Amino acid sequence: MNPHRPGTLITAAVASLLVAACGTSSNSDRGGRGSQITLQIWDFSAEQVNFHKDVGAQFTKEHPNIKIEWRSITQADYMKTLPLAFQSNQAPDMFYWNATGLSELLDQKWIAPLNPNGTVPADFAKRWPDGSFLDGINTQDGKTYGFPFSENLYWGSGYMFLNKQVFQQAGLDINNPPKTWTDLRNACAQITSKTEAECIAAPTKGEDMQRLWYGLISSVSTDEFFDYKTGKFNLTDPEQVKTFGFMQELKKAGYLAPGTNDKNFSRQQFAAGQAGIYFDGTWMLSVFNSQGFGSDKYVVAPRVDPDGGPTGAGGRQHDGNKYWVSSQTKNPDAMWTFIQWMTDPNGYFVKQYYKNAFGTLAYVDNQKTVTDPVLKQIMQIGAKPGYRVQLPEPLLKCPDLAKSKAYVKALGKTPDGEWEAMSEALVSGQPLASVGAAIVKQRQTALEEELKKEAAGGLKVSMDCYTFPDWEHTKDYTPDMYKN
């Protein structure tokens, strides 16, 4: 191994993954001379592999001329493999992506309209609530590129999972979960003193830290690294610093599982009864099921609030657009056929998705459709007033932001900067305010300077587009408020 050439090794490893992911489909499989078209779909939902095989088989049964080849790649590898696939002109026909939005995907020339004609028919759009298709979010220049897949009230992070066995061993009442930061400290003290388990299985490796972070910050301010009330990147704001300080207290007291662990390790640690508490999102029901950890072995509870009560809430955004048609597909008509089939509220995909309790979809009446008791419990928590609130949408205030690249460019400055700063501060014990100052300044400066350039070029944009002083962190920002 040559220590001076790490890039070569990484490229070779990713290239091998790409070859494995792409397989050896012939041109006829891709819609050339053969009678059956093969559509390739990629994502990183390992727990849904069997479901996707079943879905593909059923779709082909109904549409014999189209074969579905649905592949799942581990998330870390996927984030490298997909860009490489586009660079080498080997991208799938449809892919899962929520790391960036419509603007960047269009700039990268990764996506094509859902319907080859550009627009979608009214009966298709009516599957979603009014306001689900917005310029700059999933439509651009009269063409529709995305559709909300996951709904944004129940689906998301900020839930607390409790291991029944560990709580019982600690002498804690599983039906009376910690509700405040002090409750959490007290529960952790009891778990660590009376059992051999860790208290909190908390991943702290890179972006995986969001599992615990969102379980705490969502009750304090906004779970974004940008505050739409002030129009500022907010990692170093007092509310964020206070919450991170609590995380540091938990670590110092020995209540966070030791080590710099990723989410997979922490999930397995919790499922194995080696930790009593784990914070994560709606998707964990299917993840735990795939690990053989049944819902009879854990309880889902709301996130914990600061002792003085909640002063913030989880944010609801128009970010449910996750599956995109690739610009490199050679079979756009077949892809559109599959999308219509996949999003039929009464169709096979939906019925099997809910049968497997994978989550909640944006184009389904979840109150009528969900039957799984744990998922119902999650819905009851998420629907509690103030648990999640609708964030302001700058595009609705300033439509020209659909043409702006300022916010995307600001986020492009050291993409994982916030998580890197938090990881450094957690390990070193330094205050987040000092460690995170550089990334906040870098992002804010980039945003403000780029908006000024765009305004000088004729766009009607400014920092005012991102500033909503009448918004409270615990309340929905409603459509009528844009008129004020």
From TrEMBL:
Gene3D superfamilies: Periplasmic binding protein-like II (3.40.190.10). PROSITE patterns: PROKAR_LIPOPROTEIN (PS51257). CDD domains: PBP2_TMBP_like (cd13585). It comes from the Bacteria. InterPro entries: Bact_solute-bd_prot1, SBP. Transmembrane segments: none annotated. PANTHER family: ARABINOSE-BINDING PROTEIN-RELATED, DIACETYLCHITOBIOSE BINDING PROTEIN DASA. This is ABC transporter substrate-binding protein. It comes from Nonomuraea purpurea.
